[in-house]
Write a structure and sequence with these properties.
- The chain is mainly beta.
- The chain is built from 3 helices and 36 strands.
- It has helices spanning about 15-35, 55-60, 355-360; strands spanning about 45, 70, 75, 80-85, 90-95, 100-105, 110-115, 125-130, 135-140, 145, 150-155, 155-160, 165, 170-175, 180-185, 185-190, 195, 205, 210, 215-220, 225-230, 230-235, 240-245, 245-250, 255, 260-265, 270-275, 275-290, 295, 300-310, 315-320, 320-325, 330-335, 340-345, 365, 375.
- The strands form 3 sheets. It has a 22-stranded mixed β-sheet that branches. A 12-stranded parallel β-sheet has the order 1-2-6-9-12-15-18-21-24-27-29-31. Strands 34-36 form a two-stranded parallel sheet.
- The protein is elongated and about 75 Å long.
- The two termini are about 40 Å apart.
């Protein structure tokens, strides 16, 4: 076969200037919202045994002042009521947040549980924590919320740390007009999404989280910029999905055994991917729909039973990655039904194959079907594995046993 040009790929450069500016904007927006000194408000204690100020969470919220902390002791909290966040549509709700800048914190993440013992989901009810629409900020930490439709449904700037969401319809539904931060949380068997981010949310950081058997780990629908890093996605239909003009970055995440795709970027969404490991999916990266675009480097894409990279009318620029075979095509281009011809830029990658004809034989594009007006440019390529990136994922490595 033809000898590859270029040998080893050159070192990957830093992310582009536009990506850096977007990242700085995200960090700046969220820092302005959440970076503050230790809360100076009162601490209201909730203890089921009567040793605190309250025996249930809702009375503590109702009697709190802005800036207070509600410290919740062990037990399952099943009290709920009807609540309308905008004063119009009512939802069955376990904790209705109507006071600004509250911190609701459990004393032990695994021992403080909000929700019923067994699921009783009807339509969009019940919800775990639901905020009023006219607040600015909420912080939640060290809680488990389970067996509800929406574990957290927030319209305000929200920070969530070290929480567990189990057997819910959706873990976090975010229409957070001042931004969202989620750190070190677990999302287990969510029926729909672990986290769903709406277009109202101007900036999001999700880091150090674990998603196990959720239908979709994170769905960013029109979200202005979502940075997802150091997370693990295991099982479910899809790991991360950006769509409807959403933008963002995925870095240092691991995707294992998604039924459909590890990373999906749909119509109008623009995403960069860095140093991720994707494997065991039908498609490692799916880029579909007009305006969808993915750029990235240093990813290890361990193949797909349908295609490692699947591009349907979208665009990709992937360099310095491992793009490997696992039964399907290395790259499959489809739905480019009208001229002019499009070039998909996949130069300077390692394909696990040293022969260019063999690589070309595992790529499906306009060379295979004259009705496909897209062609994969894969040369030059590396004939040896590229330098591996070794980054710690902290506690999320516990999913790999």
């Amino acid at each position: 076969g033809a000898a590859p040009a270029g040998g080893l790929c050159p070192p990957a450069p830093p992310d582009p200037a536009g990506e850096s500016m977007a990242r700085l904007l995200v960090l700046g927006v969220l820092a302005m919202l959440f970076l503050y000194s230790a809360a100076s408000g009162a601490v209201l204690r909730v203890e089921k045994d009567g040793s605190g100020d309250y025996t249930a969470i809702q009375p503590a919220v109702d009697n709190a002042s802005p800036g207070d902390t509600i410290l919740v002791g062990p037990g399952r909290y099943t009290e709920h009521q009807s609540f309308a966040p905008s004063g119009q549509v009512f939802f069955d709700t376990y904790v209705a947040v109507t006071v600004d800048s509250l911190t609701i914190k459990g004393t032990d993440r695994d021992a403080v549980v909000i929700g019923p013992e067994v699921p009783n989901i009807v339509g969009f009810d019940p919800n775990g924590v639901l905020t009023s629409v006219d607040l600015d900020k909420l912080t939640l930490a060290f809680l488990t919320i389970e067996n509800v439709y929406g574990a957290i449904y927030s319209f305000v700037g929200t920070q969530v740390d070290n929480c567990v969401f189990r057997d819910c319809g959706i873990g976090i539904m975010a229409a957070c007009r001042s931004g969202l931060i989620v750190r070190n949380c677990q999302f287990i068997e969510c029926l729909h999404d672990g986290i769903a981010i709406a277009e109202d949310t101007p900036a999001t950081i999700i880091e150090g989280c674990e998603f196990g058997q959720c239908s979709c780990g994170v769905a960013a629908i029109g979200a202005q910029y979502a940075l997802i890093r150091d997370c693990v996605f295991q099982g479910g239909a899809a790991g991360i999905q950006y769509e409807s003009g959403a933008t963002g970055t995925i870095e240092r995440c691991r995707f294992v055994d998604q039924v459909s795709s590890g990373i999906a970027v749909f119509t109008g969404a623009v995403v960069s991917v860095w140093e991720n490991h994707v494997g065991g999916c039908q498609v490692s990266i799916d880029v579909s729909g007009f305006g969808a675009r993915v750029t990235g480097e240093r990813n290890i894409l361990r193949g797909g039973s349908y295609a490692t990279v699947w591009v349907n009318t979208g665009r990709v620029e992937l360099h310095n990655n491992h793009i490997l075979y696992d039964g399907g095509h290395l790259v499959r281009a489809g739905a480019f039904v009208n001229p002019p011809d499009v070039t998909l830029d996949l130069q300077n990658n390692y394909w696990g194959i040293a022969d260019s004809d063999s690589i070309a034989g595992l790529i499906y594009d306009g060379n295979d079907d004259p009705n496909v007006h897209a062609f994969v440019d894969f040369e030059p390529y590396s004939i040896t594995p590229l330098p591996a990136q070794h980054r710690s994922l902290g506690s999320v490595k516990n999913l790999y046993r």
